[in-house]
Amino acid sequence: MSNNKKRQVMNHDAYPDNYIRGILNSVKSIAMVGASPVNVRPSYFAFKYLAQRGYDMIPVNPGHVGKELLGKPFVASLSDIGRPVDMIDIFRNSSHIMPVVEEALALDPLPKVIWMQLGARDDAAAAKAESVGIKVVMNRCPKIEYGRLSSEISWMGVNSRTLSSKRAPAPTQGMRLSLNRMSVGGGDTAASDRAAKNKTEQS
Amino acid sequence: MSDRLPGFSTLAVHAGAQPDPTTGARATPIYQTTSFVFNDADHAASLFGLQAFGNIYTRIGNPTNAVLEERVAALEGGTAALAVASGHAAQVVVLQQLLQPGDEFIAARKLYGGSINQFTHAFKSFGWNVVWADPDDIASFERAVTPRTKAIFIESIANPAGSITDIEAISTVARKAGMPLIVDNTLASPYLIRPIDHGADIVVHSLTKFLGGHGNSLGGIIVDAGTFDWSTGGKYPMLSEPRPEYHGIRLQETFGNFAFAIACRVLGLRDLGPALSPFNAFMILTGIETLPLRMQRHCDNAKAVAEFLAGHPAVASVSYAGLPSDKYHQLARKYAPKGAGAVFTFSLKGGYDAGVNLVSKLQLFSHLANVGDTRSLVIHPASTTHSQLDDAAKVKSGAGPDVVRLSIGIEDKEDLIADLEQALGA
């Protein structure tokens, strides 16, 4: 227990903005497990968006080895990447999370972050990753969170839950947007967080 | 960069808005443009395919409208919102996402007369069948559920008599039946009641009323609470199934807890077309900045006027949930402790003729078919807003022939009472 003293227990029902902001500001390379070349799949949306925002994206999908996703060659598994990777973004159902996390825990060096997509949650897998110091995010989408913290998602009428009186730079195509807006939390979505929690507990 | 949650008044001024990145303009600019330039072909394709955030055409989204949408979503505690041309348009767009022809929805009998007409006649022609229930009898909602029922629709504070609906009790019925609860929160505004906190899955508004607040701009809005799971059982195919309009995207899977708002935008607003003018969005946004101040004044004035009327010898009865003697007073204390709204009815001992006489003698109250204006308003529902209902339905909806409806403004209450006194006295 003593070596866990510095680690605070993450509440996976509602992440502080600074936790998400810290992750998206610090990771540079993201391996996306379950990335799809089909351009109407959510993983394709997220892969393309994150690549445009400057992340070094690596598509992981054994069914597509030999092909490319937006110019990046598919690899079959995490161990085939052959270089250190900062974050593993898992586009798989909750029931397929644990094997991917176990594979990630065998990497050397370890990834800094394991991110499970919208709808995916495995608390046991999360605890396993957190026990070796890996940050975990579950049931969130990095594209949506990037859009939210940069307020770009406000174009869609989405509650970004941030407020700012500062002038932001005009966004241009392909630029990295600032997630460090001097913002305060602005409007809760507690009901939605509660509903997600109830759903997790029922399943 | 704290996660501290600001208060309601701060959100009413700031949520959704920031200085314009290009010009530094601090007030939200009116982006009075139909269309937006694409960076290149890939950017255009990404926007049309819903892969990128951005603007295409004002029928689908507009930067001024987007500020309004985020602001109301923040005030209601929802995940996202969609602004449309009117409250009626909001209702069409919401139900289009939920109902297929031949499906049913349950609606509280006490509603704005225009909604009763829309549900009874216009929606019938779409094959959407309304089944009425009594908001004072929760079991009547349970009894109305059939395998084809897709949603329940209620008003938080119900037109015309300002009665308070037991949102939590009805949300329990909706949850048990596996369907979303839609709450029209027009007469309360989120300042008085936040239906999502009480179990609503979707909130709609006529922005024309208290949110805009000045009687100058039509508008409507849909707020997604992000609470309903649309994926189960194929019951809501607009959200759960691959959409041919977008080459097979599944909206719930792609957009998670704001998928309903996206469906309303990309399947409803895009294809039905009731877009809100950016100019109206600007006017309504300006109104919302003072919502907390106005709404409290509306309520305080309404209570004073209701008390005056309750003590007047020409008045037979007053229906205002802010009065301790009112049938809905306990519900008002629970759901709307800051005030029971500013729209209510009273009936005159002299019946229909006395109502007509009163309306003609009032000098400050305006005789017109709206509510939620800065100005005080008066109307005789039986001959106007509820005139298309038959006599029995008029009485059931609280708009009998002897009933007069008031919408109390933000003038000095002494002047409103004096105007009523002179009109009642003669």
Your description of this structure?
The complex is a heterodimer of chains A (203) and B (426). Chain A is an alpha/beta fold and 203 residues long. Chain A has helices at residues 17-26, 42-52, 97-105, 123-130, 142-149, 190-202, and strands spanning 29-33, 56-60, 68-69, 72-73, 87-90, 113-116, 135-137, 162-163, 184-185. In chain A, the strands form three sheets. In chain A, strands 2-1-5-6-7 form a five-stranded parallel beta sheet, sandwiched between helices. Chain A has a two-stranded antiparallel ribbon with strand order 3-4. In chain A, strand 3 and strand 4 (72-73) form a beta hairpin. In chain A, helix 1 crosses helix 5 (142-149) and helix 3 (97-105) runs parallel beside helix 4 (123-130). Chain A is globular, with a radius of gyration of 17 Å. Mean pLDDT of chain A is 89; it is low at 1-6. With 426 residues, chain B is an alpha/beta fold. Chain B folds into two domains: 30-287, 3-Layer(aba) Sandwich (Aspartate Aminotransferase, domain 2); 291-425, Aspartate Aminotransferase, domain 1, CATH 3.90.1150. Chain B contains 17 helices and 14 strands. A seven-stranded mixed beta sheet of chain B has the order 1-9-8-7-4-2-3, sandwiched between helices. In chain B, helix 8 links the parallel strand 7 (181-184) and strand 8. In chain B, helix 3 (63-76) packs parallel to helix 12 (278-289). Chain B is globular, with a radius of gyration of 22 Å. The termini of chain B are far apart. The model of chain B has no long low-confidence stretch (mean pLDDT 94). Classes of the chains: A alpha/beta (203), B alpha/beta (426). At the A-B interface, helix 1, helix 2, strand 9 and helix 6 of A face helix 1, helix 3, strand 1 and helix 11 of B.
